[in-house]
């Protein structure tokens, strides 16, 4: 049965205001960085809840919204997560990690030690629901789970930055321990672990250079006289 249709309107803006908003949002997001040095300053639960709600506005395959966000502030649970993450990360850096991958990480100065998993006031784990559950207990297929969760994760990061909070997309490998520690059902797989908080007063980040627009965008506009596609 198709869903009922409702009107959809976007606030009309003149072109000057469109450009102003586009530039302002870009400047805010361009200032965003992944942070590994957190303050233990408390963060209101309401801010985390609003960021999760914002993330849940993401488009998803067949509108299944195949995600669960688990927010943790309990110190004992954060310690368990840190200890388990460091075991996996130490094995990666010292035993399992391919040399090419480790070489790529070297300029960032990362290692297996993850104190931020306890210092940050919140850990938010995004779980991907590999399938859903029907009322009768049967499985309900979910579509484009990875893509849907990726979009939701991006909105979550943007929502945090918009209110002055920092985070890091942390992906210890493997991440099965997160489902065990947090008691998640078998249809959910940990997707990203986000420590969330305010940057420490002495926080530093690598002096990275982002790719320019010309390196990440290709434009197809119109056709050439002989009918072939034209890029610029």
Protein described:
This protein has 232 residues and is of the alpha+beta class. The protein has a domain at 41-199: 3-Layer(aba) Sandwich (NADH Oxidase), CATH 3.40.109. Helices cover 38% and strands 17% of the residues. The protein has eight helices and eight strands, in the order H-H-E-H-H-H-E-E-E-H-E-H-E-H-E-E. The protein has helices at 15-30, 45-55, 75-96, 99-105, 116-119, 145-162, 176-181, 213-216, and strands spanning 67-72, 122-129, 131-133, 139-141, 166-167, 188-197, 220-223, 229-231. A four-stranded antiparallel sheet has the order 1-2-6-5. Strands 3-4 form a two-stranded antiparallel ribbon. A hairpin with a 5-residue loop joins strand 3 (131-133) and strand 4. Helix 2 crosses helix 6. It starts with 14 loop residues before the first helix and ends with a strand. The mean pLDDT is 93.
List the helices and strands and how they pair.
Layout: H1 15-30, H2 45-55, E1 67-72, H3 75-96, H4 99-105, H5 116-119, E2 122-129, E3 131-133, E4 139-141, H6 145-162, E5 166-167, H7 176-181, E6 188-197, H8 213-216, E7 220-223, E8 229-231
Summarize the structure in short.
The protein is an alpha+beta fold and 232 residues long. It is 38% helix and 17% strand. It has a domain at 41-199: NADH Oxidase.
Question: What descriptive keywords fit this protein?
Answer:
232 residues, alpha+beta, NADH Oxidase, four-stranded antiparallel sheet, 38% helix
Uncertain runs? none
* Quaternary: single chain
CATH superfamily of the domain at 41-199: NADH Oxidase
Describe the biggest sheet? Answer: 4 strands, antiparallel
CATH architecture of the domain at 41-199: 3-Layer(aba) Sandwich
Coarse shape: globular
| Strand line-up in the sheet with most strands | 1-2-6-5
Strand content: 15-25%
Structural class: alpha+beta
Q: Level of helix content?
A: 25-40%
């Amino acid at each position: 049965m198709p869903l009922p249709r409702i009107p959809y309107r976007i606030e009309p803006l003149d072109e000057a205001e469109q450009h102003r908003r586009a530039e302002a949002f870009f400047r805010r997001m361009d200032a965003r960085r992944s942070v590994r040095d957190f303050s233990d300053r408390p963060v209101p639960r309401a801010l985390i809840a609003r960021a999760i709600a914002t993330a849940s506005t993401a488009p998803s395959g067949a509108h299944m919204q195949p995600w669960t966000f688990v927010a943790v502030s309990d110190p004992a649970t954060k310690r368990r997560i840190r200890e388990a993450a460091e075991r996996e990360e130490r094995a990666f850096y010292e035993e399992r990690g391919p040399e090419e991958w480790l070489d790529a990480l070297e300029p960032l100065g990362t290692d297996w030690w993850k104190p931020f998993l306890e210092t940050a006031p919140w850990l938010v784990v995004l779980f991907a629901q590999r399938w859903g559950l029907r009322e009768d207990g049967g499985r309900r297929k979910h579509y484009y789970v990875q893509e849907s969760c990726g979009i939701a994760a991006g909105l979550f990061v943007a929502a945090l930055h918009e209110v002055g909070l920092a985070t890091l997309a942390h992906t210890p490998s493997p991440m099965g321990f997160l489902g065990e520690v947090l008691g998640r059902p078998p249809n959910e797989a940990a997707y990203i672990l986000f420590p969330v908080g305010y940057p420490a007063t002495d926080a530093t980040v690598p002096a990275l250079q982002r790719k320019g627009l010309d390196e990440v965008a290709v434009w197809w506009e119109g056709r050439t006289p002989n009918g072939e596609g034209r890029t610029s």
